[in-house]
Amino acid sequence: QYLSKMSFYRNTVWFVKGLQEYTKSGYEAAAKHFCPADLDVNVTGRSFMITGCNSGIGKAAAQEIANKGGTVHMVCRNRERAEAAREEIVERSKNQNVYVHILDMSSARQVWEFANNFSINNTVHINNAGCMVNQRELTEEGLEKNFATNTLGTYILTKALIPALKKAEDPRVVTVSSGGMLTQKLNVDDLQFEKGTFDGTMAYAQNKRQQVILTWEWGSQHKEIHFSCMHPGWADTPAVKTSMPSFHAKMQSKLRTEAMGADTIVWLAVSAAAVKQPSGLFFQDRKAVATHLPLASTRSTPQEEEKLLTMLEEFALKFKL
Fold first, then answer.
1. Fewer CB within 10 Å of terminal CB in the chain, N or C?
2. 245-256 confidence digits (pLDDT tens)
3. Nearest residue to 24 (alpha-carbon basis) of 229, 266, 258, 287
4. Structural domain total, the chain
5. Cα–Cα distances in Å, from 96 out to 66, 88, 123, 244, 278?
6. Domain range spanning residue 93?
7. Model pTM?
8. CATH number of the domain that 310 lies in?
């Protein structure tokens, strides 16, 4: 009873906050305080890996970075869609340094293989790929698909790239999380959602909470790299339309554009202002924000966070080639 009331409280407080802050009007209000010069940069010679960027905010971020002269490594699952997105990005930016790599982030073995073979000097890594599968579905490796893609894939790829990133100048890791994580308390006892009724939206939000914790932990462990995660707001993207059709239909007129959703990703990836902020924080509209709603009882203990890291490391090693 208490738990269901608490969950109702969290969801209600979160939705009210969302209407105010996560919408297009929320972005427009926040943007009044942006410093336009922050993004007036040329990143020629710097290399950016972006996962899941053949559409939506990932593609918008890739476009913006290419416009600023950056070398972009698009890591996507579908070659045809990725090549089409690449052509468009190159045509609009007149920047030829955009490359496609094919990888299914839900396959831990593939992620390891890709990371081990990726020898290009990368300066900024952007974890954008994600999924929200509404039925409990297992990957070929026997892992629940949301967890495999959003948490384990992100964990393996980031960890594998850290040694090379440490050798780069001004290295950064940006992870696209979600404000939905505010409704979730870390649950290390059911990482693969085997207990109770499966709820894809909840599973996704739980994965996004895990990413926030990972970002904080990595920031504490690897001081040479600037880690951050962020909430893009509620944006009108193909992914939102497919995985949350009723939300999309109801909210369509209030949703942000893809470029608005991508703005903070780009700011964290390229601006000098971003790295003046401490490492490991959660951002919304270019500002570090709280990772818990007031009175929502979503804080986890250091022991639970430690257990998450240990379990992810065990999963990762199990699939290491």
1. N
2. 999 999 999 999
3. 258
4. 1
5. 9, 11, 18, 35, 34
6. 1-318
7. 0.97
8. 3.40.50.720
As a whole-number percent, the residues of the chain with pLDDT over 70 amount to 99
104 three-class SS: coil
Q: Could you say which of 22, 27, 155, 204 is catalytic?
A: 204
Cα gap 299→304, rounded to integer Å: 10
Facing residues of 47 across strands? 71
Dihedral (Cα; 214, 215, 217, 222), 10-degree rounding:
130
Token pair 């919408």 is found at 23
| Cα 193 → chain centroid | 20
Q: Give the whole-angstrom CA distance, residue 108 versus residue 315.
A: 9
pLDDT, tens digit (0-9, with 9 covering 90-100), for 260-282: 999 999 999 999 999 999 999 99
Q: Is 99 a known active-site residue?
A: no
3-state percent helix, strand, coil for the chain, nearest multiple of 5:
50, 15, 35
Q: What CA–CA distance (Å, rounded) separates 285 from 263?
A: 7
Smallest CA-to-CA distance from 145 within 202, 204, 185, 195 is with 204
Chain centroid to Cα 70, Å, comes to 20
Tokens 């570090």 belong to residue: 288
